[in-house]
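Q: What structure does this chain adopt?
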Amino acid sequence: ELNREANTLCSKSNDVELTNIGLELKSVVEQFREQVQNLE
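A:
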């Protein structure tokens, strides 16, 4: 769900700074996903 929101932010943003924030958010979401997989 968070990854979908980050994708939406990146695709609808007309501002480079917001796009960069969206890309950073996607990276953090991926890190969360990896940490959860390590717990299982």
